[in-house]
Amino acid sequence: MLFRSSINFLLIAAIVFCGCSETNKTSSKKMRQTQQLIKLPDSLVKKQASGIDYFAEGDQPIHWRLELDLDNSFKFFASNGVNYKMPAIRSVEQTDIAAK
Q1: Which of 18, 28, 37, 68 is most buried by a 10 A CB count?
Q2: Whole-number pLDDT of residue 18
Q3: pLDDT tens digits, residue range 38-51?
Q4: How far apart are CA 67 and CA 38, in angstroms?
Q5: Predicted TM-score of the model (pTM)
Q6: Close Cβ partners of 68 (under 8 Å, ≥ 6 residues apart)
């Protein structure tokens, strides 16, 4: 009886596992196809061409915009007049002198 229960459990687990993995493959393929069809708005294409690496925008609690150019600067703009511009900082490799 225990052997039969184990076989039933393994059979059900295999069916569920195979079904889930096939769905995941299908949805991943469909997502890649959809991403290839998406055309960016001209405003984002212009930002990308000007060197902006990341762009974010929101409206809570007020309208704000963030532009990150990893080679140049980080800019934050808010509709209430608060604006920040910070230079991008190059990373410095830390070496452990004690390990040498």
Answers
A1: 68
A2: 60
A3: 777 888 888 888 88
A4: 22
A5: 0.50
A6: 52, 53, 54, 55, 74, 75
